[in-house]
Amino acid sequence: MSLLRRFYPTMRCKSAYEIPYEEFYAQGYRGIIYDIDNTLVCHGAPADEHSKELFDRLHAMGFSTCLISNNNRARVLPFAKAVHSRAVWKANKPSRKSYAKAMRRIGTTKENTLFIGDQLLTDIYGANRIGLKSVLTEPISPKEEIQIVFKRKIEKIILYFYERQRRK
Questions:
Q1: Is 97 helix (H, G, I), strand (E, B) or coil?
Q2: Distances, alpha carbon 39 to alpha carbons 30, 68, 109, 156, in Å
Q3: CATH 3.40.50.1000 fits domain 4-167
Q4: Domain ranges across the chain
Q5: Which neighbouring-strand residues pair with 145?
Q6: How far apart are CA 155 and CA 9, in angstroms?
Q7: Burial class (CB in 10 A: 0-12, 13-18, 19+), 45
Q8: Reading across the β-sheet that carries 31-34, which strands appear in turn?
Q9: 149: nearest Cα among 136, 164, 163, 139
Q10: What are 22-75's pLDDT values in tens digits?
Q11: Cis ω before 94 (30° cut-off from 0)
């Protein structure tokens, strides 16, 4: 079972919009790295009022933010501009390099940076590999690309053991 732990999030939350950000700020966190698709908006959707309000609130609180996506510049940059955030595109998650690049862009360290995403095998695994506190959210939409649908089946198995271990 220890091999599965590398995919376990630090915590789970229904939505990126329901995370207790004030508590994390009080604990000394100053940076937040986000996945975009199915974490903040439906896959491929532009930034909406909900996401813009969230980022305005986070920035007013004192957080620096960075988006990290395996998607291309044409997808990521307009979203980043709309929410006034830094960004890393073509991130090759779960590669550690892009998480480190995101932290450099916002001037934080692994000790004071939080990662939020909806996929265990890319988002959470990558964050865990570099030592970030990771928050797994539920996907916003059930409509996903076929390769992600396959990954979700594997994630269900991992989450079964994660929940079982948490109850002990």
A1: helix
A2: 20, 11, 22, 17
A3: yes
A4: 4-167
A5: none
A6: 12
A7: middle
A8: 11-13, 133-137, 113-117, 31-34, 64-68, 86-88
A9: 139
A10: 999 999 999 999 999 999 999 999 999 999 999 999 999 999 999 999 999 999
A11: yes
> How far apart (Å, rounded) are the C-alpha atoms in residues 79 and 36?
8
Q: What one-character-per-residue DSSP string does 21-49 give?
A: HHHHHHTT--EEEE--BTTTBSTTPPP-H
Tell me the sheet residues that pair with 3: none
Q: What is the b/e burial string over 139-157, where b = at least 16 CB atoms within 10 angstroms of the residue's CB?
A: bbeeebeeebeebbeebee
CA–CA distances in Å: residue 13 to residues 84, 92, 150: 24, 24, 22
- Structure token pair of residue 101: 């690049």
Question: Where do we find the tokens 């979700």?
Answer: 152
Rounded CA-CA distance 157/107 in Å is 36
What are the start-end ranges of the H helices in the chain? 21-26, 49-61, 73-83, 96-106, 125-130, 146-167
Q: Give the pLDDT confidence of 104-144 residue by residue, as tens digits.
A: 999 999 999 999 999 999 999 999 999 999 999 999 987 76
Residues pairing with 37 in the sheet? 41
Q: 110, 132 in Cβ contact below 8 A?
A: yes
Please state the pTM of the whole predicted model.
Answer: 0.92
